[in-house]
């Protein structure tokens, strides 16, 4: 029989979940809320987030939503035509690369009358594979005018790597797109909590 003196009572705190911040939903020791900003954007940003991203510890789509006063975060992989129709305001555009499998649509160039007329920017927050599935499930999204980036892109997303080269995180993409669409506002400010998160995560090892 085992020596009773070596047996330990279970630690009542060992299985307790870590306390999390109700705003950013991060553990308190890596909460980035002190770096949040509030941007009064004219163009509404609609973020359609895959449910797996909602559970991801970094979740930069939620971070962008917390920083943009005129934004909405919808967590879903599939939306009914009726629900999507309600969400897609007139003069919406989709933030997504112009990949070969997508239909050819008007490309929105910063500084053009078309860009100035945009009322809503639709962003799919998911891995590349999941974002492709979301677009396949919602043909209406594929047909929207598109905001895309050209040239080499440089991401500071050191704590997570994309399967697609030359790509940005969701919040970096939104900052870059909105800066072109609304040049009168400093959208790079929304990267403050992003940089804070990376700093805290790096310190955690």
Overall description:
The protein is of the alpha/beta class and 205 residues long. The chain has one domain (37-149, 163-204): Alpha/beta knot (3-Layer(aba) Sandwich), CATH 3.40.1280. Helix content is 32%, strand content 11%. The chain has 8 helices and 5 strands, in the order βααβαβαβααβαα. A 5-stranded parallel beta sheet has the order 2-1-4-3-5. Strand 3, helix 4 and strand 4 form a beta-alpha-beta unit. It is globular and about 45 Å long. The termini are far apart.
Secondary structure blueprint with pairings:
Elements: E1 44-49, H1 51-55, H2 60-67, E2 71-75, H3 81-87, E3 92-95, H4 113-117, E4 120-125, H5 128-137, H6 139-142, E5 146-147, H7 170-181, H8 191-204
Parallel strand pairs: 1-2, 1-4, 3-4, 3-5
CATH class descriptor: Alpha Beta
| Cross-sheet strand order for the largest sheet | 2-1-4-3-5
What proportion strand?
5-15%
Query: Shape, please?
Result: globular
Count of folded domains: 1
Radius of gyration: 20 Å
Overall helicity: 25-40%
The chain-level structural class is alpha/beta
The termini sit apart by 42 Å
Order of helices and strands: EHHEHEHEHHEHH
- Summed over residues and divided by their number, the pLDDT gives a mean of 87
Tally the beta strands: 5
Which architecture per CATH?
3-Layer(aba) Sandwich
Examine the coordinates and then state which fold CATH places here, giving the name of the CATH topology: Alpha/beta knot
Number of separate helices: 8
Major β-sheet annotation:
5 strands, parallel
